[in-house]
Amino acid sequence: MNLGYENRVAVVTGGTSGIGLATAKLLAAEGARVAVCGRDEARLDATRKTLGEAALVMRCDVLDAAEVAAFAVAVAAWGGACDLLVNNAGQGRVSTFGTTDDSAWREELELKFFSQIHVIRAFRPLLEKAAAPAIVGVNSLLAVQPEKHMVATSAARAGVQSLLKSLATEFAPRIRVNTILLGLVDSGQWQRRFAAREDQAMTRDEWYGRLAREKAIPLQRLGEPEEPARAILFLGSPAASYITGASLEVSGGVSRHI
Ligand code: NDP
């Protein structure tokens, strides 16, 4: 299927690692012009090498409204419009209600909400300039299936799901807004957790295998970053032209609802 990305401008926040990087690479392979942001300079440099000179790779903390506005100005000068905005930047927080203090709650709510709000506000004028613009929010299955060991992330993810559903209505019919709901995907976050594992004697296969069994993932493994990336490309493309306000679960079947 031709997804119609040739010469379209796609912006991926958090495009320097994991799912965001995999998405940027797939978009570039489909002929899109790709702009990505992140904070860590080493990851930004590595991404410049991976994506090549055709891509715009810029330092931008999505929690800093001025930096996000500057990123949008740079994309406008470089690409003129934004056909696809992938709001992906972020990370999860492992904590229970008992171990989450007020500052941690504020930090988590700020990350999940403002990584959407700042970016959508700054890029909306550029989306309006595109022929068939779309936003894809990278969200978590925790939004609809909360876990007590990730209480703040779960609550924040539910709020983001509500926010993006509202925007699908407010921005219609001009801009489509959809989300993907992730289970466990082997990205930078999980690689860092593996590196910090309690039992350093455990091999990668043993540790990931145990994780998949503990989480009772029907497909018996974590996802690879390219797997959600393919779902993002579909939802963001003209091939999904009649889909807005929807969410696509990419979890290996781990949800419990119908
Ligand atoms: P990675 O850690 O591999 O990638 C996260 C990316 O986001 C990096 O490029 C990171 O770059 C960037 N980032 C983080 N915070 C900011 C910020 N404030 N401003 C700009 N960029 C930022 O993780 P994943 O690929 O797993 O994560 C992608 C998204 O998927 C996240 O929102 C995550 O919460 C979500 N998710 C992932 C799941 C999984 O199992 N992998 C499950 C559920 C949700 P840098 O740190 O250099 O800024």
Descriptive overview:
- The chain has helices spanning 18-29, 41-51, 65-79, 102-128, 151-170, 188-195, 204-214, 226-236; strands at 9-13, 33-38, 56-59, 84-87, 134-140, 176-182, 247-250.
- Helix content is 45%, strand content 14%.
- The mean pLDDT is 97.
- Helix 1 crosses helix 8, helix 3 (65-79) runs parallel beside helix 4 (102-128) and helix 4 packs parallel to helix 5 (151-170).
- With 258 residues, the protein is of the alpha/beta class.
- It is built from eight helices and seven strands.
- The two termini are 29 Å apart.
- A seven-stranded parallel β-sheet has the order 3-2-1-4-5-6-7, with helices on both faces.
- It folds into two domains: 9-185 and 225-247, Rossmann fold (3-Layer(aba) Sandwich), CATH 3.40.50; 186-222, no CATH class.
- The structure holds NADPH dihydro-nicotinamide-adenine-dinucleotide phosphate.
Number of domains: 2
Radius of gyration: 18 Å
Q: What structural class do the secondary elements suggest?
A: alpha/beta
**Biggest pleated sheet:** 7 strands, parallel
Bound molecules: NADPH dihydro-nicotinamide-adenine-dinucleotide phosphate
Average of the residue pLDDT scores:
97
Give the strand order, joined by hyphens, for the main sheet: 3-2-1-4-5-6-7
The total of helices stands at: 8
What's the helix-strand series? EHEHEHEHEHEHHHE
User: Any idea what the shape is?
Assistant: globular
Strand content: 5-15%
Q: Percentage of helical residues?
A: 40-55%
Number of strands: 7
Which stretches of 5+ consecutive residues score pLDDT under 50?
Answer: none
CATH-defined superfamily of the largest domain? NAD(P)-binding Rossmann-like Domain
Q: How far apart lie the N and C ends?
A: 29 Å
- Give the CATH architecture of the largest domain: 3-Layer(aba) Sandwich
Say what the CATH topology of the largest domain is.
Rossmann fold
> What is the CATH class name of the largest domain?
Alpha Beta
